[in-house]
TrEMBL record:
Residues 719-926 form the HD-GYP domain. The keyword Membrane applies. This is HD domain-containing protein. CDD domains: HDc. GO terms for biological process: signal transduction. PANTHER family: CYCLIC DI-GMP PHOSPHODIESTERASE PA4108 (PTHR43155:SF2), CYCLIC DI-GMP PHOSPHODIESTERASE PA4108-RELATED (PTHR43155). The lineage of its organism: Bacteria, Pseudomonadati, Thermodesulfobacteriota, Desulfovibrionia, Desulfovibrionales. Residues 363-416 form the HAMP domain. PROSITE patterns: HAMP, HD_GYP.
Amino acid sequence: MNKKTISLRLVVSISITIGMLLLAGIILFQNFRNSVDNTMFATRVTAKHVSDSINMSIRFPLAPSGIILRLLSNTVMVNALTVEERIQRLPLFVSVLNENPLTRAVFIGYDSGEIFLVRRASEKGIPFMSDMPETASFIVQSKSLNPEGSFLDQVFFFDAKLHLIKQLEVPYNIDPRQRKWFKLALATDDIAVTKPYIFYTTGDVGITVAAHGANKKSVVGLDIATTDISNVLAELRITPNTEMIIVDSEQNIFAYQDIDKLGIKDNHSTELPTLNKLEKPILNSIIQNTSKYGVLNSFRYNNEDWFGIVSPITALRGSSFFIVIAIPANELLAEVWSDIYKQALIALSVVAIMLIIGWQFGRSITKPLHHLTEQVINIGNFDFNKPIESKSILTEVQRLAQTLSLTRDTVRRFLQISFTLNKEKDLERMLENILGELLQLVQAKHGGIYLYNEKSGQLSIAVEQGVHYENINLTNLDISDENLIAIIQQQINGDEIIIPLRNRKNELIGCFCLENPGNAENRDALIGFMEQISKSAAVAIETRQLILAQKTLLDAIISLIAGAIDAKSKYTGGHCLRVPQIALNLLDKILEDQSSVFSDFKMSENQKEEFRIAAWLHDCGKITTPEHVVDKATKLEMIYNRIHEIRMRFEVLHREAELSCLKNILNGVNPIDAEQQCLEEQAKLAEEFAFIAKCNVGGEFMKDEDLERLYAIAKRTWLRYFDDTLGLSHEEGERVKKDQTLPVVEQLLADKETDKIPWTKDGVPPVEASDPRNIWGFDMKAPKYMANHGELYNLGIRRGTLNDEERFKINDHIVQTIKMLSALPFPKAMEHIPDIAGAHHEKMDGTGYPRRWNSEQMGVTEKVLAVADVFEALTAADRPYKSGKKLSEAISIMSRMAKEKHLDIAVFNFLLTSGVYLDYAKQNLALEQIDAFDIQKFIVSE
């Protein structure tokens, strides 16, 4: 019966960890309680400090104001009757503003309803600011009586030196006699202080300090705004989101930390904004739920925790104002929680250290067994790279470790052998890896692997290590494995372990040969193990041999096709063999060079093989090109050179001239004259035939005057007496006119309708881009006729020997190459062979054929093959229409082609700088073609 177990290491570690966690938890809880209490106490002290600061901020501007008012009320200013007299006392008012920055305005109101007020020009919210000059420093607002008894409302602007800058008439709808400060000041001999209210002109919240004059007919006052108190609230916030406000018993707002949110817009209102309009419900909640002033209480509002306190403001006499403070609990206790987190981190670190200590303590007890357990798990997870060892002093543990190590090595090498058999493509490397693994497995120093060679009848050594084995001759392959092993051991004169390798047909393909480990028991087990491996190895070897045979066969077929194409024409013989030589050499140099523009170009082994096959098969489509087109050395050549037909016509005309001479003599013409005329005509015929024969060679460019002479000669006629419909093939007979009246007058040279061979019933080949049958992306223009054998048409070819139809047929070889290769079932690793092989006539400017690809559409391999093809064609000495060019001539032409964007500049330049052109020339060109020249002259700048 299985019982649940627990690790000793885990028991020790858990015990220490639980004890440390309990201790840390108690300490953290106590620290948290103390931190909260201390924070609450500090908050109460801070709230008291805030309340005291607000009281001082209000009391500070009130103290000097009383002295200032006493001085002003006893000046002659209170008895000044005109605006001019009052302005003369302006310096006194300005000095009051300059000495007391908290004072917003200084004014005098008279029992006549007049008022004279001075304020700074920098005050905000003044309605007539748009009319104020930029240099203004002080503003005087005046309401005075005219001699007629009506009021005159004026505004004066003064600069810093009290020079009048500008004067306006602006309505000043205020009667000082109706203001609270006027009434309070006349009602007392002391300094009067109003309750906070909204100033008439600026819309600020503030108070007025006032005192009556000596005649008790005027009142002198100072306006002090409470905006500064709001600024004090903003500065004294306990946390970033603390709400602080001063309200009266009716919840009218006296000051708020963010004065802009009070929403005071009506400058003519005297009503303070209320707390309800501020939309801060938490402040209302604190006021409503506070029963004792100066006590910090906790509140729950809108799923959030808050702390709140309410304290009275004593600096404003005769009024009941309170400061209300609301503090978010999460911000107030943020530092507390931060300290707790830090302490928790320290505690957890200590716990972790103790956990490590406990873990190490338990590990020291169970380490050897645990280590071996993990190694067994690694083997179970197919991880055979970690060494198996144990430092335990227990013999059983050491033996267990050794056994596990041996098991691990055996399984690892077995898997490695299996991996090699499945993955390694190269037969020799596969055999080397298998031999190495087997030798390590049996801890042997030497061994080898034989493969059977059917042609020689020998077991030939394929790979060996630590010893040299001789090949073994076998005369009878039908013997049993036991006899075979005996024969091999006798010939190698050793006591090796021999394991025969047989394929799926039970045919001998080779054998393993390993040094005998010596231990009989181990030998039997080893032989059994190797026999199992030999089965997989035999299949793998047979597979590699089949693949190698298939590759050899494919290469042979490719070489056969290339050779057949070259053998098809004595003039192009060797082209299909030489182009791969140039292309492969050039590509290898590109891959080796890491300093050129191709430093980033890389190719896998599969891609190299793909390019090699494409290079060999690049002209396989020439199989479909008629020999008379490929070999056409003269303009009239088809299966034979038709110049002989034309010569025979000249022979006829030559004899007709002679017959005509004889007829003329019989008819009485002077024999001498007749013979002279005959000789002249025959000489002319000889000259004209020589011209026709020269045109047929096509060695020079035909000029317009040559064509005119050709057409003139063609107009000669001769009589045909025999039926030209006889002896024809069915197809040819279909094109010949049947009804003839002999003899027929024929032109000496003519383009007959029968010479124009139409396309077959299948129609024009699918090479045009618009043709729906064109699935290969060709972009070529097909000629009107499949062939045109017209004598004048062909003799009139201006350059070379090919007409348009024949040139299309020549170019069609690349179309056929792509179609033929696209029809072959290439594996995915070689799927680009048709494109590589079919692009060697494309040009970098997109004017090539058959697809009009440009440089962007072509890869390095396509560009390399194109350069190789042109270089071989220019230097080949076996063309019917030209002789092989010298190296300098060929390179000069290719340099021009690179400049004209026909060849890739980088590949062409590399052909020169790498020396590939010269290596090829030394192996394939005649000595007279290899001339010296400076390659720098032909390097093309990109």
